[in-house]
Amino acid sequence: MTNTTPQWFDVLIIGAGISGIGAAIRLREQGIDNVAVLEKADSLGGTWRDNTYPGCACDVPSALYSYSFAQKPDWSRFFAGQAEILDYVQDTARRHDVARFIRFGEPLEEAAWDEAAHCWVVRTPRQTYRARAVMACTGYLHEPIIPDLPGLQDFPGRVFHSSQWDHAHDLRGQRVAVIGTGASAIQFVPEIQPQVGELKVYQRTPQWILPKPDTELKGRARGLLRWPGVRQLLRGLLYSGFETFGIGFRKPALLRQVERLARAHIRLAIKDPVLREKVTPDYTLGCKRVLLSNDYYPALAQPNVEVFATGVREIRGNVIVADDGSEREVDTIILGTGFHVTDQPIAHRVQGASGKTLAATWAGSPQAYRGTTIHGFPNLFLVLGPNLAIGHNSAFIVIEAQIRYALSALQAMREQGIARLDVRETAQRDYNARVQAALQGTVWNTGGCSSYYIDANGLNSTGFPWSTLTMRRLLAAFDARDYDIVMASLEPRTPVMA
After folding, report:
1. Which of 342, 350, 443 is nearest to 388 (CA)?
2. Residue 3: per-residue pLDDT
């Protein structure tokens, strides 16, 4: 039953994943305690709670895939697995007493800006809230894409997406089809290949895959990392190394040297020339997300695996019909078809000052000022917003930079008595013009592939065209000159941020 009496908060955070937890911790450190986190699930963790498929792990080193203010001293591997990352996120939330601010089981139904009261009205199935500001920390790796394949709904066997893994379903001896060969499939295919009777892998586009320099951390190495100075040094070295690699995304010719390593990786693992040709991309490395794996290619080379370098046309009973006309009977279908990135579902649920939703405002091409604020949506901050995706470093760098910017704006609201701030349309337009101009020479725009970086209108509304050093500078502090600001009246009709 919905409680129609609104609850008031200075800040509402949508989502209790890595971004939402980090935002809640930082807000409390700044003395902003009148905060609530709305989480659709019954536990926290976001991406790392939802994705539990076999082999799920991070492709950023553990030392860098963590909050700068809460570095873990005892990672078990150089690249941590899903369970350990989730445990880290849960432990960080516990140590900072975040759980008591989270409202579990409260998915966002609608958030609408109330111009008269200068606040957001947020509805969930249980409650209506009012908040001076909203931080949307919903990310883009949690709303799975389910392909609209004819006959899929009538398939007589079991069908599930990789992010909704059916652990109760026994794959042993089964004829299993995997549709899609992105980051998730690269990890779970080697795990299920030894169990299944037959494995049919449908690969519309091959991926560039580099060797994964993973190792267990134990003994002296693990002991050294317990020292804060050593952890900070390793973090700094890894950051610098990845930033150097990131130069190639802006100068694609450099990445062709890395392609030589990727091609050698294929040659060493796959001897069959036909299979080699199927899994070798024809676009520049980096155009799609660069993946890491030591066991994917060897798994594809096993006798119980058949790779189809084609998409799927339809499902006819228990038969998969590929675009090339081939037909195969299967018992189980696993969808490795990725997530909604440029068309985030939350955009349909957020209405700005004009009454238009984010989705209608964007019209297929998401755009924001510095990836964080949107004209016409006052007091709203997006974390992991448009044109802030990086293909070469840790998402924690982006998240912490955006939280710092939002916090700077919220502090200004509190200290100066600001009731409403809205980025100017000209500032947003000029910033995005610079972004798009800088993206023209990047590998995402010139690499010759189709990827989630490019939206429905053919615009790159996902990638960030500069270094993360530049990103940190852009998001270092709230820049009031680019905003229209309304001060709180002497007798406000609604509470002012305390």
Report:
1. 342
2. 58
CA dist 350 → 126, 136, 217 (Å) = 18, 10, 44
Q: Which two tokens stand for residue 178?
A: 């995997």
* Confidence at 5, pLDDT banded by 50, 70, 90: low
Spatial distance between the Cα atoms of 52 and 255, rounded to a whole number of angstroms: 32
Angle at the Cα of 92 (from 91 to 96), degrees rounded to 5?
Answer: 115
Span 264-278, pLDDT tens digits: 999 999 999 999 999
Residues 249, 234 share a domain: yes
Q: Please give the model's pTM, rounded to 2 decimal places.
A: 0.95
Quick one: 238 and 105 in the same domain? Answer: no
Evaluate whether residue 65 is within a structural domain.
no
Residue 358 lies in a domain: yes
- What is the extent of the structural domain holding 482? 3-44+98-143+340-487
Same domain for 233 and 102: no
With contact defined as beta carbons under 8 Å apart, do 51 and 17 qualify?
Answer: no
Residue 35 near residue 9, CB atoms below 8 Å: yes
CATH at 280:
3.50.50.60
Cα(469)–Cα(473) distance, integer angstroms:
6
Q: What domain count does the chain have?
A: 2
Q: Are residues 354 and 304 in the same domain?
A: no
What tens digit of pLDDT does each residue of 221-257 get?
888 888 999 999 999 999 999 999 999 999 999 998 8
Asked whether residue 2 carries a pLDDT value surpassing 70, the answer given is: no
CA-derived radius of gyration, the chain = 23
Give how far Cα 371 sits from Cα of 7, 64, 431, Å. Answer: 29, 22, 10
Residue 311 tokens, joined: 């998409």
pLDDT of residue 1: 46
